[in-house]
């Protein structure tokens, strides 16, 4: 009895000191993430050009602006539904509301380099379920792979139906589809990791983690789930591409629906490949350049690019900033409940 009471007494101070340290680490991590967001926002604002954007936005009627935002919202909600399906398949046991809050709240971190800040979703999930990052990482991989597959297919189809091509369009399409295929085919990913380890003979821990991730991805490889996820991604990204087409028509620069969608998707993929926060800089440069090649003057291509970024990227960030504190509060409450059990 004496030993038990002594041990329990000695454990008390440790637990009391662990909690403040954990809170300090959480606060430091959150501040670091928001520092990246602020840096990304500054860069995005500089690249977009707010004065010109505001002037062109004023020319749009309220219903036109609402249509652009509505099509973007359709994309976010569809992809949020896909995230919920993946989370349910992984066995997280979270409800649809929680999954939507995690997915949409993560948009607040879209302007971090390489969108790494969106991994905050794993932080919220870890708090609410007790799952480690390694167990939930496949959710991020399969979600990104589904986006790549959908965008690659849309780009390929749009280029096939457009009268003129896009320089680099086919290679980007192929790369996107290959990346999606590798991530969504666990056996193939595991073989690549094994071959890489044997060929390099180094980084055994890295390749071991890739192999573990490949095995954990097997839960998502059911044909029905893969097809449904692809369909959701196709409809969602088509909605945003079609919004770009409508905007160009309203601004008197109709280049055809196929070409408009191809330019939008290609620019989005190209911007993502740069690793810049939110694809800022690369996406805008690609859009303006491709529109110019289609005979659209800078007086139209510049504001059109700025407006579509406002109604897609910036709109997503706005939604994320609203839901971010909700996700933080809800996840902390769930974490406290788990710790007090």
Outline the structure in words.
The chain has 341 residues and is mainly α. The protein has one domain (32-44, 61-185, 221-339). The chain contains 13 helices and no strands. The protein has helices spanning 2-48, 50-59, 62-90, 96-105, 120-129, 133-161, 169-184, 186-200, 204-216, 223-250, 257-274, 282-293, 298-339. Helix 3 runs parallel beside helix 13, helix 8 packs antiparallel against helix 9 and helix 12 (282-293) runs antiparallel to helix 13. The longest helix is centred in the N-terminal third of the chain and has 47 residues, at 2-48. The radius of gyration is 23 Å and the shape is globular. The chain starts with a helix and ends with a helix.
What amount of the residues lies in strands?
under 5%
Number of helical runs?
13
Q: What is the CA-CA span between the terminal residues?
A: 24 Å
Which outline best applies? globular
What value does the Rg take, in angstroms?
Answer: 23 Å
Strand-pairing-aware structural class: mainly alpha
Helix content: over 70%
Regions with pLDDT < 50 over 5+ consecutive residues?
1-18
Count of β-strands: 0
Please, how many domains?
1
Give a short account of the largest sheet: none
What's the multimeric state? single chain
Order of helices and strands: HHHHHHHHHHHHH
Give the overall pLDDT as a whole number. 77
Helix/strand layout:
Layout: H1 2-48, H2 50-59, H3 62-90, H4 96-105, H5 120-129, H6 133-161, H7 169-184, H8 186-200, H9 204-216, H10 223-250, H11 257-274, H12 282-293, H13 298-339
Helix pairs in contact: 2-13, 3-4, 3-6, 3-10, 3-13, 4-13, 5-6, 5-13, 6-7, 6-10, 6-11, 7-11, 8-9, 10-11, 10-13, 11-12, 12-13
């Amino acid at each position: 009895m004496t030993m038990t009471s002594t041990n329990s007494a000695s454990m008390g101070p440790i637990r009391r000191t662990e909690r403040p340290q954990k809170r300090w680490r959480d606060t430091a991590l959150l501040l670091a993430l928001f520092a990246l967001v602020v840096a990304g926002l500054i860069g995005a604002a500089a690249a977009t050009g707010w004065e010109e954007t505001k002037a062109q936005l004023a020319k749009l009627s309220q219903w036109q602006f609402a249509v652009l935002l509505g099509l973007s919202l359709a994309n976010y909600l569809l992809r949020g539904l896909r995230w919920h399906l993946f989370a349910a398949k992984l066995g997280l046991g979270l409800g649809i509301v929680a999954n939507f809050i995690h997915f949409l709240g993560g948009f607040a971190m879209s302007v971090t380099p390489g969108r790494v800040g969106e991994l905050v979703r794993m932080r919220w999930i870890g708090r609410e379920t007790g799952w480690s990052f390694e167990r939930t990482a496949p959710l991020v991989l399969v979600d990104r792979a589904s986006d790549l597959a959908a965008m690659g297919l849309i780009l390929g189809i749009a280029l096939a139906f457009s009268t003129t091509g896009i320089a680099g369009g086919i290679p980007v399409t192929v790369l996107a589809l290959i990346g999606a295929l590798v991530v969504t085919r666990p056996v193939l990913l595991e073989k690549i990791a094994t071959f890489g380890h044997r060929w390099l003979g180094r980084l055994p821990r890295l390749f071991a983690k890739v192999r573990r991730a490949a095995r954990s991805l097997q839960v998502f490889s059911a044909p029905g789930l893969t097809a449904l996820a692809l369909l959701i991604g196709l409809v969602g990204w088509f909605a945003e591409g079609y919004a770009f087409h409508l905007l160009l028509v309203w601004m008197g620069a109709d280049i055809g629906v196929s070409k408009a969608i191809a330019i939008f998707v290609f620019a989005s993929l190209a911007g993502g490949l740069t690793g810049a926060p939110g694809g800022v800089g690369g996406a805008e440069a690609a859009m303006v350049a491709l529109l110019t090649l289609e005979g659209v003057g800078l007086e139209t291509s510049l504001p059109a690019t700025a407006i579509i970024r406002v109604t897609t990227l910036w709109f997503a960030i706005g939604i994320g900033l609203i839901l971010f504190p909700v996700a933080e509060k809800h996840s902390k409450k769930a974490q406290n409940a788990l710790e007090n059990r």
